[in-house]
Write a structure and sequence with these properties.
mainly beta, six-stranded antiparallel sheet, 14 helices, flat
Length: 1451
């Protein structure tokens, strides 16, 4: 029998080949790194033991039926003790192994015997385990340990993901799953989570992942010995259509299929691109849209062309940065958030089965404003060159603008996909435009951004890179071979089956892929001999001159066949080598590299040379240069331009361009520009090239574009007259002529082209002679300018040479538009060549919107116009229109002309109009300016839109961009519409109409200029000033500094002196003279004479008679008033007002008060004395008269005085004025009256109201039921203090009703009412009855009227006699009390009550026992009353003794 250890070795070997857990079979990346080092060592021992056992025992294995104590102890202490590691799967594995081994080679008898042995062995093992558990259970306890930890995953949205782990430990650990440290409850979201534990494998499955599932998960294993956790992260990504790591799947972006095109292959689609996007300029952060209108003919509903957008030769696809839209007619590309990466040449492809059409234009993106002035702009084009398990090389391009300060370096930031937390990857800025980023977590995806820094600040961050996953390149290659992987989004992580431990071989092809002074990047290939498990690497370095190899990463081995080394000594040389390692050991080192010096291997490129600009358009130039010599890894070039003399350089591109030529757009026409270029690679930017020669921005000369719109204007039997439209592009110079070619069409087969003439023709209409009658012809036209002959036009339609016999005229030709404005346009045309049977008598002009149908033509003029021009008005701004013209004769209206090109009704920015001018000499002229003059541009003046050539009536003066059209002798011959057009511009033109009214106005203005006057705003006038001064003044509209002025009085000139002050303000044209005082001698005529160059004028003012006297009197009064105001004075004179308290307040407002100013009040010339000095607060003086009455009538005066003067104000309060005050006091008092209230008394009912103040002048009237009450004995009224009352004695039911109190102030009455009815009357009447009875009872009740003292002191033995008066009706009963006990009369005490009024109290012989408190009690039916007194009896001897004792005490 073999040993138990041998058995265990066989068991483990069987497990390795037969019983590998299913989760390991599904993980391709499984290797022994997931196992603990203890388990790996134990497994290796088992395999070695198994080999020895197999070599010793060649026959079938026999198992021992018993286990000795020694072997059992050894078995228990083994690190691979099977009861602790695999007790859940031991029986199944042994049975499966034995059945397979014996199924073929053993007989049934042997199999039965071995089965019995096996059962016996299992029973023995179980009994032994139970025995040792009971023997020492604590020695079996072990902490939980994760044999296989859960792996992190990155998955696509809406996919499922499953985390696995295996745990060992005793007792069996309990596993709990957590999400972000919160336990997962599968019942909160049914179906979301599935947690399972079978055969020692614990799993968490997450279904239908979304972004909320991006989190850190961990499994916590716990038993009696402790707790242990293992962590894993899940990142959920949303699938994007962009090509990123899986862009190699050609099936995802297959070429467009044309199955949807019509089946007839002969159908040809004509594609026309109109309303094209042009060169565009944007700014970072803005949104930009590019669009074109696409017209496809024939227009089939089921057919839609494919629209593709490209940038710099790379096709674009919808993303968060790019949006595409196709409406069926218009294709639009929207850049939602511009960045410099979006700069480039954009091309729109329109694909059909017949071919494709395209349109391109450049888009420039300017930098956004820096957050800190002087800081650099953001880098661009951030992308990842290489990606491995634990590091990525990030690359970028340097910005064109450094903010005026050199860029010191760059910071790289990373962010894990699914989070918003950015982490800076480098502590110090790197100058090289590449950086290896380490410390990544395998399987997770990251995005990156870069920031530039200079000595002023840090730039804005660049646009983030595309996401990149930290994966081994071999894993990435396997993923690339799986076309479904990108679509499921699941990063499939598999584990390979373990095999025999093989020490890996040497890595091969070790090279230094990149070396800078900051880092060195190594790359190698994995060894060929490495087994089936994963391998890792150790990198070693050796300094030149030594043989000492140092391990760079001794603690953390590298998982990827690439490695970046930092912290190397700059300038030193190193060799490097790599060792492979796995669980079997560390292999031999690779071949060492050559010595590599730690320095920048990539040099900054040299400056480009020979920068040459050349003209392109009026806003762009073509800049070419010689490439940088010996430049390595060149990224591109930056171009800068500067206006000569400005000293300011601006970038022409913000994204490096490759090649040797670039078109710089957005330049200013007419300015001189110079350019410079510098190259850029990862090492940095080169020096600037030498500056180019300055060149003016203007359009380059080119041959003109082809003419178009060829039509027949007249046809006879042997000739035809052709007309055409001038080219849309003139080539930068005037078109000097045209060449016409023709060819015969015989049976639809065209012949050869023939020249119709030798010399160029200047007109756009030409008669071709010597044609064959009834022959069909085609024509083409070429234009010529200074640059040469342009391309021919498209062949015309086919025309037949035959005699026209129609009576109506042919079509007008050369229809052109000019003077385009937002609501008008001017059309011109030429007469038809074929006039019909009669002369042309007029023309009709038709208009319609460009997008409208032919049925929507409308006529501009209801009556035919004889002129060959018309101004079409009433257009809608922003709408495109087309026009045509029809000629009319006596026979009718002829065929319309060809349509004009669509013209949009809008006024171009900067549009100027012709202005009319009349100079100082009276010369009338028209002036027109143009700021958009190009080289060779000319001003063309026309009258009635016919060019004026050497007319004797006018003179033309042109200088630069300004022209003057001068009328030599304006008259009726000059009536008409004058227009001016500028050649070589975008239709710059304007016109000015001179009719009879306008001509008359201009002639009058010319006369005024020839014989000028000084224009006056106002004639000579006079006014008084505050001091009583007299001011004469007039105002001219304009008065130059050389103008002169004279004042004339009665034919004598007035000079500046003490009496007259003359002033002239030439800026405002104000002329004035001030006289200090107007005296009698100043009566007369005043005249002002003005002269300003040739202009003069005068104005006269007559001051005589009453006009003079009134002015003199008013001036004197004004002077006195001014003198008064020099001292303390009244601004508002004395007046009165009644306060709310019915007092009269006298007040006035004063000014120019100082501390020494005194104020005195008088009444009837008697001074009113005050205890306190008056306070001039707010400049108001007041006197309060309280309870104003007749005694307060009189004359009140207030006087202000100090050393500067005196002023007084008087107020007469007499007669009517006094009555007004009294009336106002009464009115205010009446307004203070309270509501009428009801009060009951013992006599009746009283109605009353209170006022703040009552005076006799306030009339009181009481009304009952609108009837005035008269005073009687029963009903009385009166005033007590401020109470006004009405007393109703002994009221009855007749006294109910409404009572009104009327207060009459002398002008109007003020009423207060009360309803004395119903419950009010009843309550008042009941209260009156009660009070009345109470009064009667009070009057008749028993009372002690008087006569009794309070205290009686009497000597013993004397006689006491007291008498008091008693009242009551009926007569009251009288009784006496002593110390509250009733007394009865006897001989010692005699008590008497006589006449019902007198009660007497007599003690005949007073004793000491008579001392006490006595009381008389009187009582009748209305009440009771008492009278108290005290009697004190003393003995004379005792009295003397008491006095003596008191005197002794005092001494």
């Amino acid at each position: 029998m073999t040993s138990v250890k041998g058995h265990l070795g066989l068991y483990v070997a069987s497990m390795s080949s037969l019983s590998l857990p299913f989760y390991q079979k599904h993980h391709r990346h499984f290797d022994r790194n997931y196992r603990s080092s203890q388990l790996q060592s134990t497994m290796q021992d088992y395999r070695l033991e198994e080999k020895r056992n197999v070599a010793t025992h060649s026959s079938g294995h026999m198992y021992s039926s018993g286990i000795t104590e020694k072997k059992d102890e050894k078995f228990k202490q083994s690190e691979g003790y099977i009861g602790g590691e695999f007790h859940l799967v031991q029986k199944e594995a042994i049975e499966e192994h034995n059945v397979e081994r014996t199924a073929v080679h053993k007989t049934r008898k042997v199999a039965i015997r071995e089965s019995a042995d096996r059962i016996s062995l299992n029973k023995k093992i179980h009994e032994t385990q139970e025995f040792h558990k009971r023997l020492n259970e604590d020695s079996m306890l072990r902490l939980p340990e994760f044999i296989i930890k859960p792996r992190s995953h990155t998955v696509w949205e809406k996919q499922n993901v499953k985390l696995h782990c295996t745990v060992s430990g005793w007792p069996e650990p309990r596993v709990t799953w957590y999400k972000n440290n919160v336990p997962i409850n599968i019942y909160t979201e049914p179906g979301k989570y599935v947690i399972d534990s079978k055969y020692g494998v614990h799993s968490l499955e997450i279904n239908n992942c979304n972004f909320d599932d991006t989190a850190q998960y961990h499994a916590s294993a716990m038993n009696a010995k402790g707790e242990l956790s293992a962590f894993a992260s899940i990142v959920v990504k949303r699938f994007k259509a962009e090509l990123d790591d899986f862009s190699f799947h050609t099936a995802r972006f297959a070429p467009p299929s044309y199955d949807f095109f019509p089946g007839d292959s002969r159908v040809k689609f004509d594609v026309h691109i109109i309303e094209k996007f042009s060169v565009s300029f944007g700014k970072e952060g803005e949104t930009m849209s590019l669009g074109c209108t696409v017209i496809v003919h024939p227009n089939l509903k089921r057919f839609h062309p494919e629209i593709q957008w490209w940038r710099d030769g790379i096709q674009l696809h919808p993303s968060k940065w790019v949006q595409m839209h196709w409406s069926g007619e218009r294709a639009t590309l929207t850049l939602t958030h511009l960045n410099k990466e979006d700069e480039g040449l954009y091309t729109m492809h329109v694909l059909t089965k017949s071919g494709y059409e395209l349109h391109s234009a450049y888009v420039f993106v300017r930098d956004s404003d820096a957050e800190v002035a002087g800081s650099p702009t953001a880098p661009l084009d951030v992308y990842c060159l290489d990606a491995n398990k634990d590091y990525v090389i990030v690359s970028w391009k340097q910005p064109a603008v450094d903010g005026g300060n050199p860029i010191l370096g760059y910071f790289v930031d990373r962010c894990e996909v699914g989070t918003i937390h950015w982490v800076q990857c480098n502590d110090t800025p790197v100058k090289f435009a590449r950086l290896p980023v380490t410390g990544l977590v395998e399987g997770r995806s990251y995005i990156f951004r870069v920031r530039a820094v200079n000595n002023v600040g840090i730039s804005r961050p660049s646009r983030v890179s595309d996401p990149v996953a930290a994966l081994d390149p071999s894993d990435r290659d396997r993923l690339k071979g799986m076309p479904l992987a990108p679509w499921t989004g699941q990063i499939v992580v598999t584990e390979e089956e373990p095999a025999e431990g093989i020490v890996p071989g040497k890595p091969t092809e070790l090279t230094v892929t990149e070396a800078t002074k900051s880092y060195v990047v190594l790359s190698w290939k994995p060894p060929g001999q490495r087994g089936h498990e994963g391998i890792m690497y150790y990198v070693e370095k050796c300094v030149a001159g030594t043989e000492d190899w140092q391990r760079v990463n001794p603690e953390i081995p590298v998982k990827s066949p690439r490695f970046a080394l930092f912290d190397l000594a700059e300038g030193k040389s190193y060799r490097f080598r790599v060792r492979s390692a796995n669980s079997a050991g560390i292999g031999e080192p690779s071949e060492a590299t050559e010595f590599t010096e730690v320095t920048d291997k990539l040099d900054v490129p040299k400056a480009p040379g020979h920068v040459v600009p050349s003209r392109n358009t009026d806003t762009s130039m073509v800049v070419s240069w010689e490439e940088s010599k010996d430049a390595k890894e060149l990224v591109g070039y930056y171009i800068e331009g500067s206006i000569q003399g400005s000293g300011k350089w601006e970038p022409c591109n913000n994204k490096p361009v490759k090649g040797k030529r670039f078109i710089c757009h957005g330049l200013h026409t007419g300015e001189l520009y110079k350019f410079r270029v510098r190259a850029v690679n990862a090492a940095g930017l080169s020096e600037f090239s030498q500056e180019s020669e300055a060149l003016e921005v203007k359009a380059a000369l080119a041959a003109p574009a082809p003419p178009y719109g060829i039509t027949v204007l007249e046809s006879v039997h042997d000739s035809m007259v052709l007309g055409w439209k001038q080219p849309k592009f003139h080539g930068g110079s005037d078109i000097t002529g045209y060449f016409v070619d023709y060819r015969e069409i015989i049976k639809d087969i065209p012949g050869k082209w023939k020249e119709a003439h030798i010399k160029a023709i200047s007109d756009r209409a030409y008669r071709i002679s010597n044609l064959k009658e009834n022959m069909t012809y085609q024509f083409q036209v070429r234009a010529i300018n200074m640059a040469g002959v342009g391309l021919p036009s498209q062949p015309s339609d086919k025309f037949k040479c035959e005699e026209w016999t129609i009576a109506v005229p042919g079509p007008p030709h050369d229809v052109m538009y000019t003077e385009v404005r937002k609501n008008s346009v001017v059309l011109t045309w030429r007469v038809p060549v074929y006039t019909g049977r009669n002369e042309v008598t007029g023309y009709y002009v038709d208009v319609r919107e460009a997008a409208a149908s032919d049925e929507q033509w409308t006529s501009v003029n209801e009556k035919a116009t004889s002129k060959r021009f018309i101004k079409v008005q009433g257009l809608k701004e922003g709408v495109s229109y087309v026009f045509r013209v029809r000629a009319v004769n006596m026979a009718g209206v002829g065929r319309p002309s060809d349509l004009t090109e669509p013209v949009t009704a809008e006024t171009s920015p900067g549009t100027k109009e012709i202005v009319v001018d009349v100079d100082d000499d009276g010369v009338i002229s028209l002036i027109f300016e143009c700021t958009d003059m190009a080289e060779g541009s000319k001003f063309i003046w026309s009258k009635n839109y016919e060019e004026l050539i050497d007319s004797p009536r006018v003179t033309l003066q042109t200088k630069g961009g300004k022209t003057r059209f001068i009328f030599n002798d304006p008259g009726k011959e000059d009536l008409g519409v004058y227009s001016c057009a500028v050649t070589n511009t975008d239709g710059v033109s304007s016109s000015y109409a001179i009719d009879e009214a306008e001509l008359l106005r201009l002639l009058e203005l010319s006369h005024e200029h020839k014989f000028p006057i000084v224009p006056l705003k106002t004639e000579l006038a006079v006014e008084l000033l505050d001091k009583g001064q007299v001011r004469f003044w007039l105002e001219a509209e304009r008065f130059s500094p050389n103008g002169q002025c004279k004042f004339i009085f009665n034919d004598k000139e007035i000079k500046n002196d003490e009496k007259y002050k003359i002033k002239v303000d030439h800026k405002t044209g104000l002329v004035e003279m001030i006289m200090e005082k107007l005296e009698d001698i100043d009566e007369g005529t005043f005249t002002v004479q003005l002269q300003d160059g040739k202009a003069n004028n005068q104005s006269t003012l007559v001051l005589i008679g009453d006009v003079f006297k009134n002015l003199q009197k008013e001036a004197e009064s004004q002077r006195k008033e001014w003198l008064r105001k020099q001292g303390p004075h009244f601004v508002e004179y004395l007046e009165w007002e009644v306060t709310n308290d019915c007092n009269v307040l006298l007040k006035c407002k004063v000014a120019n008060i100082k501390k020494e100013t005194s104020i005195i009040w008088y009444k009837d010339d008697r001074e009113i004395m005050f205890d306190e000095k008056h306070d001039f607060k707010d400049g108001v003086c007041t006197l309060l008269v309280q309870q104003f009455s007749k005694k307060d009538a009189g004359v009140y005066e207030i006087v202000l005085k100090d050393d500067r003067g005196r002023d007084s104000s008087t107020l007469r309060l007499l007669e009517k004025a006094f009555g007004d005050v009294i009336s106002e006091v009464c009115r205010v008092a009446a307004l203070t009256a309270t509501d009428v209230k009801v009060q009951s008394t013992e006599h009746g009912i009283r109605l009353y109201s209170f006022v703040s103040y009552y005076l006799e002048d306030l009339k009181i009237i009481w009304h009952h039921k609108d009837t005035k009450l008269a005073s009687t004995d029963r009903v009385k009224s009166g005033v007590t203090g401020e109470q006004i009352w009405l007393q109703i004695n002994e009221p009855t039911q007749k006294d109910q009703g409404k009572y009104t109190l009327e207060l009459f102030d002398g002008k109007e009455g003020h009423k207060k009412s009360v309803e004395l009815t119903g419950p009010v009357f009843d309550e008042a009447f009941a209260e009156f009855q009660r009070l009345k009875q109470a009064a009667i009872a009070e009057k008749n009740r028993a009372r002690v009227i008087g006569g009794l003292p309070d205290v009686v002191t009497i000597q013993e033995g004397k006689s006491l006699n007291l008498t008091c008066n008693v009242w009551g009706d009926p007569v009251p009963a009288v009784s006496w009390l002593k110390n509250e006990k009733e007394l009865l009369g006897d001989a010692h005490l005699i008590l008497k009550f006589e006449s019902g009024k007198f009660a007497s109290f007599v003690i005949t012989d007073v004793r000491t026992t008579d001392s006490g408190k006595y009381c008389i009690l009187v009582k009748n039916k209305y009440g009771t009353e008492t009278g108290d007194f005290t009697v004190s009896v003393f003995i004379p001897e005792e009295e003397e003794q008491v006095k003596h004792e008191k005197a002794t005490k005092k001494k």
